[in-house]
Design goal:
The structure is a single chain. By secondary structure, the chain is mainly α. The protein has a domain of 31 residues. It contains two helices and no strands. It is elongated, with a radius of gyration of 25 Å.
């Protein structure tokens, strides 16, 4: 090994004993279930392009009912926390 050279990792071509290869690819390749529906996965470009794609995915793929449910749960938890710490809730009325 030289002083300026970095060490390379070893590569192995492992194939399971009873695995019959198919056209789908490697059984070890993991992919998220929603990757084929998103624009932001694997996109190239600058931060402006990535941010624009993320905003578009949020607008198109979001569910309004689900978002309202999450907001309602968060508000209930906040009010419950304020009640537990004995916060004076009369300032809101």
């Amino acid at each position: 090994m030289g002083i300026l050279k970095t060490r390379k990792n070893k590569k192995f071509n492992y194939e399971p004993r009873y695995y019959k290869s198919s056209k789908e690819g490697s059984p070890f390749e993991m992919e998220h279930i929603f990757d084929k529906y998103r624009k932001t996965v694997g996109s190239e470009g600058g931060w402006k392009t990535k941010f624009g794609n993320a905003i578009q995915d949020l607008r198109v793929g979001s569910d309004r009912r689900g978002r309202l449910t999450i907001i309602a749960v968060i508000l209930i938890l906040i009010l419950l926390f304020l009640y537990i710490i004995d916060f004076d809730l009369t300032i809101f009325t």
